[in-house]
Amino acid sequence: LTERFSLRKDIIRWIIFIQIGIITALIACTIDIIIEELSRRKYTFLYNSVKDNVPLSDASDRDLLIPYLYWLLFSIVPVAFGAAMVTYIEPITAGSGIPQVKSYLNGVKIPRIVRIKTLAVKAIGVITSVVGGLAGGKEGPMIHAGAVVAAGISQGKSTTFVKDFRIFKAFRDDHEKRDFVLGGGAAGVSAAFGAPIGGMLFSLEEAASFWNQNLIWRTLVASIISVFTLNIVLSAYHGLNDFTFTGLFNLGKFDTPLKFDYFELPIFMILGVTGGLLGAAWNSLNTKINKFRKRFIPWKIGKVLEAVVVAMMGVTLACLMIYFINDCRPLGNDPTNNPVQLFCEDNEYNAVAALWFQTPEATVRSLFHDPPGSHKILTLALFTVVYYVLSCATFGLNVSLGVFIPTALVGAAWGRLLAMLTYYVFPQAEFLHPGKYALIGAAANLGGVLRMTISLSVILMETTGVETSFFFPLIIALISAKWVGDYFNEGIYDTQIQVNHVPMLTWEPLPQYKGLKARDILSKPVVCIKLHDSANYIYQMLKKCDHNGFPVVDDVRGDRRSEGRVCGIILRSQLIVILLKSLYVENKRFWLPETSIQTFRDVYPRYPSIKSVRKLDEKINYTVDLSMFMNPSPIRVNPHDSVPRIFQIFRALGLRHLLVINNENRIAGIITRRDFIYK
Amino acid sequence: LTERFSLRKDIIRWIIFIQIGIITALIACTIDIIIEELSRRKYTFLYNSVKDNVPLSDASDRDLLIPYLYWLLFSIVPVAFGAAMVTYIEPITAGSGIPQVKSYLNGVKIPRIVRIKTLAVKAIGVITSVVGGLAGGKEGPMIHAGAVVAAGISQGKSTTFVKDFRIFKAFRDDHEKRDFVLGGGAAGVSAAFGAPIGGMLFSLEEAASFWNQNLIWRTLVASIISVFTLNIVLSAYHGLNDFTFTGLFNLGKFDTPLKFDYFELPIFMILGVTGGLLGAAWNSLNTKINKFRKRFIPWKIGKVLEAVVVAMMGVTLACLMIYFINDCRPLGNDPTNNPVQLFCEDNEYNAVAALWFQTPEATVRSLFHDPPGSHKILTLALFTVVYYVLSCATFGLNVSLGVFIPTALVGAAWGRLLAMLTYYVFPQAEFLHPGKYALIGAAANLGGVLRMTISLSVILMETTGVETSFFFPLIIALISAKWVGDYFNEGIYDTQIQVNHVPMLTWEPLPQYKGLKARDILSKPVVCIKLHDSANYIYQMLKKCDHNGFPVVDDVRGDRRSEGRVCGIILRSQLIVILLKSLYVENKRFWLPETSIQTFRDVYPRYPSIKSVRKLDEKINYTVDLSMFMNPSPIRVNPHDSVPRIFQIFRALGLRHLLVINNENRIAGIITRRDFIYK
User: Fold this and answer.
1) Is A224–B511 a contact, with Cβ atoms under 8 angstroms apart?
2) Per the CB < 8 Å rule, is B242 touching A262?
């Protein structure tokens, strides 16, 4: 029987993973298509406006003012709308969402992180900000979207819509939910990049805190299903009948295989080191900006205004560049959609405008694939600087935006720039294919900011279709960048987690805990509950104290509960449910027949607060028997156990509370996640 | 200070990983080159012998007898030599080594698995068996070799050579050693296939039992260094000056990109299902053969003879095929080194001989890359059947051989065969590129036998240089194969582990443990030691009882130690060292000043047995104070804790002993690894 149940559960688990893949992809498609359509319209309009307002081939004194104002309008409106939604409706949706998902997977409770409302705000937020032209990408939000989808589907209920489908109940615990969320994140990355292996590796390398062999390939299946769905939908949308894979090379396929020689390896390494330095500087600058922000912009309206200001700054800088740099290139092999002529001759287009008149993702594509000689050195140099600063100012705004694409874009720009500079000095260096170096530069910059290695290289390979042998240069650049960057600070996601004081458990115990004992870090006295305690005591205690876990004790002398002998542990949420449902010994005959652990699953995960419990009145003297509700096997340690060892237990088991007991099995203290972070 | 120590340790750890990569690659090169040279000579000799003994274009009655006898000789001598070495010198080297490394990484103590002697025997074993022409590959043994190298380097000492370099002492514990061994395994796979990402994923997917984010990229660096070294050495050996990567496409590079259409996906799925069925059948047949073997061939000489018989069988079947099948193909685009003419016309070669007159690895290459029409359908059909049976009979012989290459070979053969058959029926199906289907067939068969997905697909991609978009067909075939295969039995490595009754802990608790409590599975009474116990008691107890861990207790009433109150746990090995070094309270003044945990590290991992302790005589009444040696924080659980929960703790922390204590902190029993396997 158990075996059949287990098989059934396994099949359902697979079905859920497949559903996660499909729905995540559909959401990703929708976001993708809306962004693409709106951006196309926006830039076509601007293109026409430039055409109408700037007389061709005529160095008259009419300037870019009208197009500039239009451009500002098209930036401010969506950005303000998106920032307002994020700020006023769901502030948790700010940023890329990856640090939050990572903390969630580490076992930190983050309220509202996987709600459907969060998903809706995030989706609208990312569409508005990308269309508004902010220096960010849709990738981070898509990972968050996948996580929400996974949490929603696997639990078979939505608290936002107060709907419980009464399916998948067996998966309603944190452990199972976490596995699904990991799968959802992977599906999200895969959909964002069209990169199934990359997506799976990304979640394993960056997001996972726990590891299980089965998880690898469940995650992989979700990723593949996701990419497959995405491909079908996008092929249909673009009117392709043969369902070819090309639609998914998000960063454009390198048509001719990229070759490299061994003497280039040191160059790749230098690019990696550059990326590490630039990335570490970016992280540190961004952290400073965000600290400043936190301190000086506490008001909600200020946050919205700030986003608008950054958007205006971006448009203004772009316009200034277009206005002052005269970089005209012959039409013909121009890969952009809107070849603005501006002040150029007929049959020429403005290379600066070409960089700015598209989404950042499209600009990465241009930098990878534009033929040699598509830009002036000055153009790229200024573009790099401007975009570096802009992206640094953008990440941390109260808008939904990821950091992947702007980071890749900055890297691609300076990678291409370095190749052009070197070629300028040594014109005989034929190997300096600017697209190749843009790719390596992107990898190096990503490595410097994000500090991931394998998944980034695989994602870059999958999104550009380069051959597997090109993995080697990419990984050389990434590893050099990570190594250099790690010397200065941590990756941007970890930095964000630290800045926000999230009690995230690291992989290894911190060195300063060496030699400490449990008694040095435990908290006491501990608020305990008797095995048979009065309803009134529990009610009063919950009102006074906001702990999340309470040891259950017996053999209590008088009222000194905190010296009792440990029987188990019970959670705050369970106690509240007991009070709400009046599960008292005295009225046991009224209990529903199936009252058990199931009672708690029904309300998972949005447990009511103690305020929702009415005053007890007549039930004040009723008794609660915790023996049937508590967890009778909490992990216990001794006061003289070493902290690094305790940390390992805590980390490996994903605990939230650890009881410290003395030789008589009585409570000596309690250790929680925070005790490993702040002392 | 702690932080500086920690940084220094980190740097040393990196140095060790780099060394592991280099040395593993050098060993792999050596094995590779020797196999290649010897095989080339062998097959050139046979080629000439066929040429001399079979009159050209003349259907006379002279037959293949003399070449056949030579062939037998060249098979029997190396195989007998290799089998004898394995059997008489180091039986642990039999087979691929992957199940053993996997068990080791799971925390099972396997004696002699990571010794230098083991490495030497394994290297010679794999050379002789591949040169002897057995149906096996060098991949598994190379992984094992990498693991040995890692263990040796990281510990800075060799017990075989009784040499202690007194470096890297900080890494002398099971936990650290396990991480290095994982890196070594990855370096080994990478060197075997020239596939760095594939190698890393292989160790993570198949071998790792514990997981840590840092581990991923240390392992990756070891893999990359390994491939890089391999490439330099092999390029130099082959006289290439440009150090191109092409030498590393072990299974041959597909020069034209492999294309596929969406309507082929169902076909790939069918191939996957076929692979799953064939693989599951192979596993079950192989298990039956091995059980038979274990039962009926217990003598050492019998094992050697058996290997010789299987080798002779292979040669005989090959000769019969060559003799009876008349498959002549025009010379010209023949990719084999020895195009035997045999009974064919001038300007023709015998396609059957071409399949057999090379190492299995080279045959895989031929099946992938031979132009369409290189074989008769009958040739391939017979070859598939013969090789399927041969490889099944070979895996489990007392020789050092891996299962990867023969499995890929069988799959490539039937994959190509299916494409040819379908093309024969539907000659308009242009998409049936036989090499492509050979590749998919190889993937499907590997999936059916090994049940891995991601790493196999990445390895196949890296060794054949196909584009990243071809990942999709490969993974479809692999997942279908794994799914179908898993319905029938487990992967070959897990099957082997089970057959050998290795107490390997699974990822999840077995379903039959649901509802059980600790008291249902614990062992008691437990042999305990007092905190201050007499030397004599410990000595006598160690002689009588072979347990590996002993609870340390105090508050003992009389002599009833097993009812004492738990203070900690001490290992058998530590007790023996204490006795050997006379670390008694009474002679504390003679102790070396640095006596501490270091005392135990010096003898790690080859602890002496109790037999090496002389009788105690005058020290018989001395006392041992265990408080400074024992582990004071063993994990403890209660008798009524649930078994699945205990299993999670046990698994996540990689424990060997778990104390069950009652409410008074007194011993109720002990749970070990075996309690989770056999009950």
Assistant:
1) no
2) yes
Q: Which range has the top average pLDDT, A50-54, A260-264, A268-272, B338-342? A: A268-272
Nearest chain B Cα distance for residue A407, angstroms: 22
What pLDDT score was predicted for residue A679? Answer: 46
Closest by Cβ to B197, choosing from A217, A454, A565: A454
Say how far apart CA A266 and CA A473 lie, in whole Å: 10
Rounded to a whole number of angstroms, the distance from the CA of A274 to the nearest CA of chain B is 20
Rg (CA), chain B: 28
Residue from the list A204, A221, A511 with its beta carbon closest to the beta carbon of B3: A511
Q: Which of A384, A22, A268 is nearest to B228 (CA)?
A: A268
Token pair, residue A98, equals 């990856």
Which of the residues B8, B190, B468 would you substitute to probe the A interface, choosing the one with the greatest number of A C-beta atoms within 10 Å? B468
- Average confidence score pLDDT of chain A: 83
Q: How far is CA B472 from CA A194, A200, A221, B353, B443, in A?
A: 11, 14, 11, 34, 12
Write out pLDDT tens, residues B64-120: 788 889 999 999 999 999 999 999 998 888 888 888 888 888 888 788 888 889 999
Residue A93 distance to chain B (closest CA, Å): 26
Closest chain A residue to the Cα of B265, Cα to Cα: A228
Q: Which of B176-180, B275-279, B360-364 has the lowest mean pLDDT?
A: B176-180
User: Quick check: B511 and A6 CB within 8 A?
Assistant: yes
Name which of A508, A500, A450, A440 is nearest A476 in CA terms.
A440
Contacts of A648 in chain B (CB under 8 A): 653
DSSP string covering A308-363, please?
A: HHHHHHHHHHHHHHHHH---EEESSS---S----TTSPTTEEEHHHHHHSS-HHHH
**Encoded tokens for B594:** 């640095």
DSSP A259: P
On chain B, the residues whose CB falls within 8 A of the CB of A243 are 262
Encoded tokens for B676: 């989770």
The ipTM (two decimal places) reads 0.75
Out of A468, A508, A663, the one facing B465 most closely (by C-beta) is A468
pTM for this model (two decimals): 0.82
The predicted-structure confidence for B307-335, as pLDDT tens digits, reads as follows 999 999 999 999 888 888 878 887 766 56
Separation CA A369–CA A362 (nearest Å): 10
Q: B174-184, pLDDT tens digit by residue?
A: 777 888 999 99
DSSP class of residue A608 equals P
Per the CB < 8 A criterion, the answer to whether A660 and A671 are in contact is yes
Nearest CB to B454: which of A197, A469, A472?
Answer: A197
A170 pLDDT above the threshold of 70: no
